[in-house]
Design goal:
Helix content: over 70%
Low-confidence stretches: 1-18, 544-553
Radius of gyration: 24 Å
Strand content: under 5%
Oligomer: single chain
Distance between the termini: 33 Å
Mean pLDDT: 82
Amino acid sequence: MAEAVTRGDSARASSTPDERSTSPVRSGVVLGSLIAVAAVANLGLAVANVALPSIGKHFDASQTELNLVAVGYSLGLAASVLYFGAVGDRYGRKLLLILGMILTIPADCLAAWAPSIDVLFAARVIGGLAAGMAYPTTLALITALWSGPARTKSIALWAAIGGGISALGPLCSGILLEHYWWGSVFLLTLPLAVIALVMALLLVPSHVSESTDRVDHPGGILSIVLVGALILGINFAAVPNETTLIVGLFLVAALGLVAFYIRQRRAKNPLYDLAVAARPTFWVAGVAGIIVFGALMGSMYIGQQFLQNVLGYSTIDAGLAILPAVVCMVIVAPRSAKLVEAQGARLTLLFGYVFVMLGFLTMLFLWKENIPYWKVGLGYAFVGIGVGLAGTPASHSLTGSVPVKRVGMASGTADLQRDLGGAIMQSIFGALLTAGYAAAAGAAIAASGKNVNSTVQTELTKSFSSAADTAQRYPASVQEQIIAGAKTSFLQGDQWAYVAGIVAVLLGAVLVYFMFPRLDKEKRLLAEYHSQDAGETAAETAPSTEQSLEPIS
């Protein structure tokens, strides 16, 4: 099978510095198929953001409920990628890929016609679980089928096109919202899912370097509980009078982390090999990727609400506004691959962090009411360049640090970078926006000296869309005052979010600078890991080889 699939030996995840490139037969269409599958997940992550104001008005949703809708897809995806990555390694990556595409269709339909905000959130989680089946498979197969510089280039294309499609989601959603109801945005992925399913069935190779080891199912369940409780806890952190729920969720996450660690230390074939995860080229890249991809998702999440609520952009204009991020990511990512090969992952990551930082500084200081578009485009362009630079080394370092039998772990972690990073950053940004908006709106009501009953005050401080709905019940002059106050409160809330983004990027840059190895040491470590992993693989296969060579007596 390996000879039919690849040109040369690609049966390992790590690559030595001088390794020649190998790639599968019909590499272009195979890579296109994998990118199409990944595009379904990337598009699913982004379609909800531009529809949040419309969803908020339709369901009279609170800011926390909108946060959950926005993060629901990431929640399902982030909670499941490690487990499903291991399942794919054992039972067939192509099988998981196909099942994920099939499940996407009913999940999107349920979201489109959801009768309540709770059903919409559940549908988004199910869609994320479907993506969790398919998405980690794509990078795992790229790692198994390509090697050397060809793998770096393939990962760069995978990251750039996936990120570009994700960023295009708001534009496509905005066009649909101009003509159809809010649920139409969730049907956007259906045609692509059908195309990706057909391409996967016909073009993706089966059973490439898969494992025969048993799957650590208890570890998989613990990983789902851990990530799910953590993300929900962050989302509810800003909700008043929910202390018991918040503490309970964080307690479950903490206990889940302890139990997961103990399980991985004791399991014969752990879901997450802690010895491999301790390699600096692995764990530092993992954390760095969480921050940079989280910054992209967080900035898109807050930015779409800012554009529509504060600047008054239409859904199409709000979608078009993010095009600088798309263009910059697609242009920069392939060049990032060359920079990784020439200068190493550390320097490339740091360059990316500089541009992401410039993006958040632009949003913090320039994104105000009535600003011209160039200030909006500048912020998005900086973030796009940063993600384009940092995305490739973050993913490449993970896949280059593991043996092929752990490629599901590497691809799952690479996917977790996007999904957990997006979920955490959206949750943190959303919680800070909720808290900041409520505090500013409450202070404005108190300072007005007007007698506002508790019911109206709750509606005014719940979210921007709730305040806008409440304003419609009053005369025009009062409506203008309420909307103006809501805009001011939103701007104070989003400042909290941008500061959090700046702090996260600074911490990530410090981590990469001090903990990620420089180019020479990075090459030496990767060579050592490859030698060590090859020796362990040979030792595991030796007994069966010796037994097969015994003479028959």
